[in-house]
Every structure is written in C-alpha cells, then in structure tokens.
Amino acid sequence: MTETSPVEGLGIRDDGAVRWIILDRDARGNSLTPDMRNRVIDELDGAHGDHDVRALVLTARGKRFCTGADISGGAAGDRVAGDVTEMIRTGAQRLFRAVWECEKPVVCGLNGTAAGIGAHLALACDLVVAGRSAKLIEIFARRGLIPDGGGAYLLPRLVGPQKAKELFFFADDVPAAEAERIGLVNKVVADDALEATVSEWAHRIAAGPTRAFAFTKRMVNASLDTDLAGAFATEAALVEVNLQTEDMREGVAAFVERRDPEFKGR
After folding, report:
1. Reduced to 3 states, what is the DSSP secondary structure of residue 69?
2. In this predicted structure, what is the pLDDT of residue 74?
3. Bridge-partner residues for 20, per DSSP?
C-alpha cells in the first residue's frame, strides 16, 4: 500500500477496494484548509465512477479527528451581502453533501476529538467506529455561533430533536461511550484497535454488493424526508434497478447453489 499526499495535511491510501482518506494535520487539530476540504470532496465524488473503489474510510492521525474549518487566515477582504451564504454553501455544506450522498459506503474511524464541522463530517458517514478516547463536541454555542455544515439537519435524525437541542445549547463534550449510548456512533473500541476494526468493517463492505449498498443508502437517507407513498415509490423503482445488477444475479445463484456469493460490485 502506497500513501500519497495530494495536498498538505491529507493522505490518500488504497488497500484493495478500500480507499482511505486520512486527515494528517494534528498540530492544527486536523482543521480543514480549503485545499484539504476540496480534495476530500473530490475523492468522495470520484469514488462514484471508480469501480475499483467499493468502500471508503475517513479518519485522521493524532489526538484529534477534526476540529472544524481552519480559520487561522481570518476573513479576507470586505464582505458584501451574500458572501457568507455562498461561503457556507460551497464549503461546509458541499462537504457534508459529498459524504452524505457518496454512493460508496463511508466508514469513519473516529480517532479523537471531532468538534463543530468536524463532528458533522464524522456523523455524516454511514458507519462510525470510535476509539475510546474520542469525543464529539457541538462547539458552536461556545463561540456564539449557530450550527452549520448540516448539523441541524443531521443531529435530530440521529438522536431526536430534544436531545439535539441539548447538545447544541450546552455544547458539552460527548465522550465516545456516551456517543455510542445515544446512537451517534456504532461501536467503541480501544484506541489501539481502532484502525484494525475500521479496516475489517470497510473490507467486509467492500466485499459486498456495492450497487445494492448504494441503493439502500439512498433509500435510508431519503426516508425521513418523504411520506410513505414517496418512500414506497422510491423503493419499488430501486428494487427494479437492482434486479439488473450482476451482484443480484450472483447472490441468487449462490443461494440456489448453497455457496458463498462472490460479489464484484457491479
């Protein structure tokens, strides 16, 4: 496995059909520069048409996962009406959508503190495995800010509106064990077991029916924003599309022949 660094603070590594996206800027809390953010988006978007990539891992090195956007440069130039709206739309919101809408499953390896946009980046992933020392912080209220980057959309869907408001209003640290208890993460493991556990999960996903996972993700993500008629219409349409995939035919053949399927992701 060879890791490349397409932009400063970011590593990309392919391990079979699993692509690892690694934030590597711990001295700055793994905060996201615009170049890092844009490259993460490019990697997620590029996975759509790359048949060699069947699962992705989003993780980081060091004591922090991501402490949000890098604002060390401050605000450049004079702002006019609409500048902030455009900045949010093309920045944090675009990043959230890239994870949320990626057709390949994304597993987060939550290695440390995830705050603000960093927390939303982790929680937008399909599955979250956390190291025991990791924590999530909806830090916005500490700065007199309101949540952005999809937080007010995502958090109520994970923990319900009242719990979401508690997390937003108090901005308390949420340790990994508590995050697992309330449904923000799927599994908590010892810190030194995090990479191996994430790798195992990602490789299990990569060996599965990739197109079926994409359709399933689309249905689940849309389920809370539609009524029963809309959900059933989407389900019926995607079931029909999935019937045309090679993996569906392989899955049925393997069942009839009483053997394990060998999915190809097509």
Report:
1. strand
2. 53
3. 13, 57
Number of domains in the chain: 2
Q: Among positive and negative, which fits the CA dihedral 88, 91, 94, 99?
A: negative
Q: What is the CATH number of the domain that holds 92?
A: 3.90.226.10
On whether the CB atoms of residues 13 and 20 are closer than 8 A, the answer is yes
Strands 18-23, 10-15: pairing is antiparallel
Q: Which residues of the chain have pLDDT under 70?
A: 73-78
| Parallel, antiparallel or unpaired: strands 3-4 and 55-60 | unpaired
- H helices of the chain, in order, are 34-46, 83-90, 92-101, 117-123, 151-159, 161-170, 176-181, 194-206, 210-223, 228-242, 246-256
Distance separating alpha carbons of residues 225 and 209, to the nearest angstrom: 26
Looking at the domain assignment, is residue 115 inside a domain? yes
The answer to whether position 30 is within a domain reads yes
My answer on whether 25 and 138 are in the same domain is: yes
Domain of 83 in residue numbering reads as: 3-206
Cβ–Cβ < 8 Å for 100, 123: no
